[in-house]
Design goal:
The protein has 347 residues and is an alpha/beta fold. The chain is 49% helix and 17% strand. It is globular, with a radius of gyration of 29 Å. The protein starts with 11 loop residues before the first helix and ends with a helix.
């Protein structure tokens, strides 16, 4: 008989079909277990919260954002993690606001540029409006949250907390600035805020908006004669290396707004939103503390770096600012009411 045609002997050969069925069943069981495990693994995945800002290392923006991230991440462990991208890594302020609206980043820290999104934010472009941080606290409570924040929401932006960029001062390479007329003809970089531009036009300067990341080179090459910023931005951006004069004008106090895109913000789980909001608002005290300390320390450093420092005739700047207040009040709905409330809160 042909061996190939012989009937299989009893033993292992007859067990093969059962063995195969058992193996297949085991594989199916493993696959099913894997499939049922996938949703729980996905649900446990940590959400990355991207926070962008234009500040350089050492700036108040960087210090504030890093402290917020540290505090928030300690509370969010395993659920979400705030990752900070400074030095314009995610774009200019204007570009980051657009990314907030598109939902490609979660948070940004704009300042003056918010006036180009919401006209009423121009109140913080009014010269010498904010007397001090205690006054700013009252403005935040009685003017910002009830009047400005809802206008931002209409533009798809959710302000989570109000921090600080600081009191702004003028630097340039031409001459010390004591009165507005000293600014005549000076090419001055400003942020992208129309009321800041109009203010310096009123003072006699030749102001031009420019991305913060481009300012150092513009000053170094003479494309711009000067700029205006808080000490924290002047020092961290090393403007003292390319600017000779620092005039202590303190012409505008600029808040910084930790801001989200409304749709992206609302898509986050409610418990994560709550942690981010609570942490952002509690971080404000830390921001003010650091800002107050920096005002003294950084001025000393700027002097030591060789900048020629002078105080301005503030009354002459206040007098030259009346037209800006008048124009803002006439052109922007709700502006006069907001200004009147802010001024009434000074004492």
């Amino acid at each position: 008989m042909n061996p190939m045609l012989e009937k299989p002997q009893s033993g292992g050969a007859r067990k093969a079909p059962g063995t195969r069925r058992g193996a297949l069943a085991a594989v199916a069981a493993l696959a099913l277990a894997g499939a049922t495990a996938l949703p729980s693994a996905a649900s446990a995945q940590e959400i990355e919260i991207k926070l962008g800002h234009v500040g350089n290392p050492g700036s108040l923006f960087q210090i504030s954002a890093d402290e917020f991230a540290r505090r928030a991440n300690a509370k969010l462990a395993g659920k979400a993690k705030v990752t900070v991208f400074g030095s314009s890594q995610l774009g200019s302020d204007k570009q980051m606001i657009q990314k907030l609206k598109l939902g490609t980043i979660h948070l940004a820290l704009p300042s003056t540029v918010m006036t180009s999104e919401v006209d009423l934010f121009g109140i913080f472009e009014m010269p010498y409006l904010v007397a001090d941080r205690a006054h700013m606290g009252r403005i935040e409570k009685d003017v910002f949250w009830p009047m400005l924040a809802p206008e931002a929401e209409k533009k798809g932006l959710q302000v989570v907390a109000v921090w600080e960029n600081g009191y702004r001062h003028i630097t340039n390479n031409k001459r010390a600035i004591s009165k507005p007329e000293d600014l005549k003809g000076i090419k001055l970089r400003t942020p992208n805020g129309k009321w800041r531009v109009r203010m310096f036009q009123e003072y006699g300067a030749n102001p031009s908006p420019m991305k913060f990341s481009e300012v150092f080179t513009a000053l170094q090459t003479g494309v711009m004669d000067g700029q205006e910023n808080p000490f924290t931005q002047i020092w961290s951006a090393k403007f003292q290396e390319v600017q000779k004069y620092l005039s202590l004008s303190g012409h505008v106090y600029t808040p910084a707004y930790l801001t989200a895109g409304a749709s992206k913000w609302n898509s986050l789980p409610a418990d994560i939103r709550q942690v981010l909001e609570d942490t952002a608002r509690e971080t404000q005290g830390y921001v003010y503390e650091v800002a107050t300390k920096q005002e003294v320390e950084l001025l000393d450093k700027l002097k030591a770096a060789g900048m020629q420092v002078n105080r301005v005739d503030q009354k002459s700047f206040v007098d030259a600012s009346k037209a800006i207040y008048s124009d803002f009040s006439k052109e922007v709905k709700g502006a006069k009411e907001a200004i009147d409330k802010a001024i009434a809160l000074r004492n």
